[in-house]
Write a sequence for this structure.
């Protein structure tokens, strides 16, 4: 019984929470990018970051992230144009990344082009090429 109580306490103390860090709608108002931070995990603590997209024309939910990362510093998003989203960061461990997103709704109804995701590491000016 004591072991079970200990496991339940750890499970509740180690639970993860989500925080929406940024939401940006494309200049043409056809797509929305959402940056989410998942944090928690008790004493060990951790933070994971996810970049999601949703069409503003359909009822799509934020399902599958285009980016999964951890250990990020100074992470932000911003649209460079209608079809290019930039994700800025100074340090990040990129665990999964897809550089294009296309709305399933838009494909079915209007054949919309893809949004390109560009990773921009801030402070790279001093790196040797």
């Amino acid at each position: 019984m004591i072991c079970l109580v200990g496991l339940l306490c750890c499970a509740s103390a180690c639970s993860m929470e989500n925080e929406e860090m940024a939401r940006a709608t494309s200049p043409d108002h056809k797509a929305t990018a959402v940056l989410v931070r998942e944090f928690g995990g008790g004493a060990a603590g951790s933070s994971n970051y996810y970049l999601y997209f949703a069409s503003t024309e359909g009822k799509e939910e934020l399902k599958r992230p285009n980016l999964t990362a951890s250990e990020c510093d100074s992470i932000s998003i911003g649209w460079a144009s209608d079809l290019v989203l930039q994700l800025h960061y100074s340090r990040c461990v990129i665990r999964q990344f897809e550089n294009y997103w296309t709305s399933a709704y838009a494909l079915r109804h209007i054949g919309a082009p893809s949004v390109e995701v560009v990773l921009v590491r801030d402070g790279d000016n001093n790196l040797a090429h």
